[in-house]
Amino acid sequence: MRVPQKPSWKRWLKRIVVTVAVLCLLAVAFVAWANFAALHAGRGVLFDDLSKVPAGKVALVFGTDDRFQGRENLYFRYRIDAAEALWKAGKVRLILVSGDNSEKYYNEPEKMKAALIKRGIPKDRIVCDYAGLRTLDSVVRAKEVFGLDDMLFVSQRFHNERAAYLAKANGITYCGYNARDVAGQGGLKTKLREVGARVKMWLDVRVLGTRPKHLGEKIPLPE
Hints:
The protein is α/β, with parallel strands linked by helices and 223 residues long.
């Protein structure tokens, strides 16, 4: 006696469901791995306590705009706060502010420089990198354009972790000082975007071999 078989469309549907489930699990595992890689790169070298930050470094402050949707951007303020604290504690000898200046009326580095000067930091101790369009660009340009093989990242911890992974992949010695994070809905949205940013980070380094959009001639930093 023959056992009735399921209709062929049911067998195909089952295969499709199983395949989709496997692909979803692999995607989740990949996202988790990319995020863990950044977390691991920052372990033990990103500091919340100012007293633990090694002295004598050049600080690389990652850019963002001072305004967001018509309001003060707290990410900007807290990064400036952190850079000021490092300078006044004698932890850094120079500050490199790196950000986006790709549009005529949008200039993150100049805004950061102006804010730091208002905090009492000498303008000749601040250098602008106008082509830090992405974190990858800022990190690689700091090495290849400005000649830094050892640097101190200044941003929120989640951002410093991603920068740490990029620095490690490019043979850079690094540590970081974590600026105060942003709470509330705005902070949550940024954290969700960061998940995707870390996937892009891993692909840029391990698959795509992404390079900065602009390099150009070397720019010596002041002593």
